[in-house]
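Tip: read the tokens left to right.
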């Protein structure tokens, strides 16, 4: 599969930047807002934004439960920042009414690196991403408090886990879509291709 179709959950957050990054890696990128739009994709990105707002809108648009089912069935998914929170099986400090998609056996802490005015950039060496470290943009970013045995830790910053993978589900605390460096997206698109190839056998 040379041109996998990868959706970006387009309810709230930095959707356009992910669409651009995915297209740069050779994927066919499209926004996803409705449950029926999940049927035509090979992978999905959950963007940064406000995790509580995204989860509530996902319920309102009727997409949360179908998305959970697709993830359980093996849909490759990549979450950045708020998307990482949505992919956690447990949030340490959830806000009222906040739900997650799940998919990674981890506990995350919201806004762990500080508030908006404490945002920062840092070089992050990510396992599986060749070459120099990735420039990580951390904006009200979470970190991973703990992971289960099936989770691979891909990166840490300042002693905290900031990138993980479990099977075909990938998550980062930071925003690679904001830097023009598309290597993390390329890693995810390669995961999507590999899953599609395995499913076709």
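Filled-in amino acids:
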């Amino acid at each position: 599969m040379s041109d996998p179709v990868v959706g970006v959950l387009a309810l709230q957050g930095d959707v356009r930047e992910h669409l651009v990054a995915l297209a740069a890696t050779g994927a066919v990128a499209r926004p996803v807002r409705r449950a029926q739009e999940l049927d035509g994709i090979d992978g999905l990105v959950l963007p940064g934004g406000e995790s509580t707002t995204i989860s509530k809108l996902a319920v309102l648009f009727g997409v949360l439960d179908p998305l959970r089912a697709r993830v359980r069935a093996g849909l490759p998914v990549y979450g950045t920042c708020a998307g990482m929170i949505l992919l956690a099986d447990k949030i340490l400090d959830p806000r009222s009414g906040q739900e997650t998609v799940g998919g990674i056996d981890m506990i995350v802490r919201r806004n762990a690196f500080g508030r908006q005015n404490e945002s920062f950039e840092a070089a992050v060496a990510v396992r599986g991403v060749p070459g120099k470290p990735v420039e990580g943009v951390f904006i009200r970013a979470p970190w991973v408090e703990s992971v289960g045995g099936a989770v691979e830790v891909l990166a840490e910053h300042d002693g905290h886990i900031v990138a993980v993978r479990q099977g075909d589900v990938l998550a980062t605390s930071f925003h690679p879509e904001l830097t023009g460096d598309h290597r993390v997206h390329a890693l995810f698109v390669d995961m999507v291709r590999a899953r599609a190839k395995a499913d076709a056998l």
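The mean pLDDT is 94. Residues 70 and 91 are 21 Å apart (CA to CA).
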